[in-house]
Every structure is written in structure tokens, then in C-alpha cells.
Known about the structure:
By secondary structure, the chain is mainly alpha-helical.
Amino acid sequence: xxxxxxxxxxxxxxxxxxxxxxxxxxxxxxxxxxxxxxxxxxxxxxxxxxxxxxxxxxxxxxxxxxxxxxxxxxxxxxxxxxxxxxxxxxxxxxxxxxxxxxxxxxxxxxxxxxxxxxxxxxxxxxxxx
Length: 129
């Protein structure tokens, strides 16, 4: 497939998610991720699965990608999946050594340098470190 066709499919996935059509978003995100194997597309697929209530499938997708160990977005979504599944011990293992205040805000991450996100793409992201 050409890159412009893949970009069009990514747009369809985003549009489906914004319109709460999660089953359709999951379908198209699966196709995009299978074609590209790009971490961003895998994350988009996991996000669609999470929003559709498929928490275990989303967690297994994130965990199988091995990016969950290096990318804070993957780790956070994996922890959210485990939280929805009420698997608190495993959730804590995924999150690692984060210090959390009484309001649930992360005040300090152990080794934040390995999880630093610096995206040069069109979308801007918040640096959580």
C-alpha cells in the first residue's frame, strides 16, 4: 500500500474513535498496524481496543510489542488496562517506581531519562518527565 493510503486509513481510525465507533476503529487500526508494524500504529490500535472496552486484548498487544518497556505512553496505557481489569499488583509492576502524592499525581519517576518522549511529528505531546 502507498503511504497516502495508509495515512487515509489512519484518519479513518481517528475519525471512528472521535465518533465513538470503537468497533470500526478497532477493525481499521488492526489493518493499519498489520501493514506498517509501526509503534505509533500499534499504540493507536491498543488505544482503540482500550476505548472499546477490550482491556485484556489492548494490554496483550502493548505487552507483546516490547515497546512498553521503553515508551511511557505504552506503559501508561498498559497500566490503565490492568487497572480496568483490577489487576493491581501487575499494574504496579508495569508502572515501576513512581512516587505518587495523595491526589494521585506522579511527583517523581525513578529513571525518567529512559522514558523521555521527544516527538518531532506534527502532533505535539506533553513531556511527562
